[in-house]
Amino acid sequence: MDPKPGNSWKGLVSELQLERFQVIAAELKVTGRFLLRPLDAALELVTHLLARILGTNLVRRHFHLVLSGLVLFGPLLSFWVSKYNIFANSNHFLYRKFLRSTWGWTCILTGSFVVLLSFSARRSVPLSLRHFSRIGLTGLLWWGAQRLLTLFEDASGSCYEPMPPVQDVQSPAAAAQPPVLLLHEDLTKASCLKGNFLWRGYEVSQDVLILCFCCLLLLEEISVFGRHLSQQKSPGAPIKVLFLLCVVLLILWMFLLLCMLANFPNWPSQQLGGALGYLGWRGLYQGWYKLKPRWCCPGLPGEELFEKELKRL
């Protein structure tokens, strides 16, 4: 029997619709390639330019001096910065979302970049894990440093409760006297501030410490990307995007550091934090990591990753 005319008509319509969808998909594919081509060219240009700048000896050898000058002279900006600007609010979005989790953002982006860079360069999982161990060791050291600084602040300070002044009608000068402070013993700094009491003692700015250290760490880890580009002329887009994100994060940390110093100056707590951050970077990247790579030393960024260096060895 001949097929029904209705069924043949439906089959013809479905074939026409399928061909139409294929034509539209091909047009969209061509348009997408046309639009992505300039974006890819811009990504290539920006990554090569930034990698070349950050990989120069001038930047790598003098970046810590720039940070030192920023920490030392940044508080002077408080004389010109308005106290009503948006960054003078300690509850600002950038402070809440980024400053309070500085190491978390640095660990995620830098760790991802280090793993992808080392694996794309040598295709070795053990070597990638060894380079990633630098980030893990730094995280453990930062955790220990936080505990030690907290113990130092609790041991060197005391908690006081301001008492309301006694109203004395016969002595009008009593109102001008400073309030009486009642000492509370066996209270930590966290519990003291939680009870809305007054804490007096020595402290180190942990925010400035971790910001300075993360800036130095980021520059050390991403400055080797230029050598990777010279080895692989066309690396994938994911590693380029990660590199740009790390650069943006470096700029953000420097901006937040400047905002803190200008809007919330606290001498010498912030300068002590910056000095400890510098000493931490100096001890790791200029000391420990310069040793020969083995089980107790992950080595410097880029070590044993590039062919030219391996031929020299």
Automatic annotation (TrEMBL):
<protein>
    <recommendedName>
        <fullName>Fat storage-inducing transmembrane protein 1 homolog</fullName>
    </recommendedName>
</protein>
<keyword id="KW-0472">Membrane</keyword>
<dbReference type="GO" id="GO:0010945">
    <property type="term" value="F:coenzyme A diphosphatase activity"/>
</dbReference>
<comment type="similarity">
    <text>Belongs to the FIT family. FIT1 subfamily.</text>
</comment>
<dbReference type="InterPro" id="IPR046402">
    <property type="entry name" value="FIT1"/>
</dbReference>
<keyword id="KW-1133">Transmembrane helix</keyword>
<dbReference type="GO" id="GO:0140042">
    <property type="term" value="P:lipid droplet formation"/>
</dbReference>
<feature type="transmembrane region" description="Helical">
    <location>
        <begin position="241"/>
        <end position="264"/>
    </location>
</feature>
<feature type="transmembrane region" description="Helical">
    <location>
        <begin position="102"/>
        <end position="120"/>
    </location>
</feature>
<dbReference type="GO" id="GO:0005789">
    <property type="term" value="C:endoplasmic reticulum membrane"/>
</dbReference>
<dbReference type="InterPro" id="IPR046401">
    <property type="entry name" value="FITM1/2"/>
</dbReference>
<keyword id="KW-0256">Endoplasmic reticulum</keyword>
<feature type="transmembrane region" description="Helical">
    <location>
        <begin position="62"/>
        <end position="82"/>
    </location>
</feature>
<dbReference type="InterPro" id="IPR019388">
    <property type="entry name" value="FIT"/>
</dbReference>
<keyword id="KW-0812">Transmembrane</keyword>
<comment type="function">
    <text>May play a role in the formation of lipid droplets (LDs), which are storage organelles at the center of lipid and energy homeostasis. May directly bind to diacylglycerol (DAGs) and triacylglycerol.</text>
</comment>
<dbReference type="GO" id="GO:0008654">
    <property type="term" value="P:phospholipid biosynthetic process"/>
</dbReference>
